[in-house]
């Protein structure tokens, strides 16, 4: 037979009230916040596969400024998000 005991502790009422106020403040901040995913940088090949198009389409969109890219050659990365 398991017997559970309950332990009571004394808490300063003012400290508890301050903690409650802080939690309310944090809850308000979180309820008005939005979370955006980090940009995803992919190789030209991976971006083409992800978007189901050709690598030349990705390169054309980079040249037109529709996609942001960094690097050059095989190390070129494209931001698709």
Gross morphology: elongated
The description of the largest β-sheet is: 3 strands, antiparallel
This entry's quaternary arrangement is: single chain
Number of helices: 3
Structural class: alpha+beta
What letter string, H or E per element, gives the SSE order? HEHHEE
Distance between the termini: 58 Å
Q: Radius of gyration, Cα only, in angstroms?
A: 26 Å
Low-confidence stretches: none
* Percent helix: 40-55%
Strand content: 5-15%
Structure summary, number of beta strands = 3
Average predicted local confidence, pLDDT? 91
**Strand order of the main beta sheet, please?**
1-3-2
Annotation keywords:
81 residues, alpha+beta, 3-stranded antiparallel β-sheet, 3 strands, 44% helix, elongated
Polypeptide structure, described:
- Helix 2 (44-51) packs across helix 3.
- The protein is elongated and about 70 Å long.
- A hairpin with a 6-residue loop joins strand 2 and strand 3.
- The model has no long low-confidence stretch (mean pLDDT 91).
- It is α+β, with helices and mostly antiparallel strands.
- It is built from 3 helices and 3 strands; from the N terminus they run αβααββ.
- The protein starts with 12 loop residues before the first helix and ends with a strand.
- The chain has a 3-stranded antiparallel beta sheet with strand order 1-3-2.
- The chain has helices spanning 13-31, 44-51, 55-63; strands spanning 41-43, 68-70, 77-79.
């Amino acid at each position: 037979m398991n017997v559970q005991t309950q332990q009571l502790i004394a808490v300063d009422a003012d400290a508890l009230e301050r903690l409650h106020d802080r939690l309310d403040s944090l809850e308000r901040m979180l309820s008005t916040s939005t979370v955006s995913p980090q940009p995803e940088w992919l190789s030209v090949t991976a971006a083409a596969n992800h978007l189901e198009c050709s690598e030349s389409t990705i390169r054309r969109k980079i040249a037109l400024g529709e996609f942001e890219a960094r690097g050059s050659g095989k190390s070129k990365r494209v931001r698709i998000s």
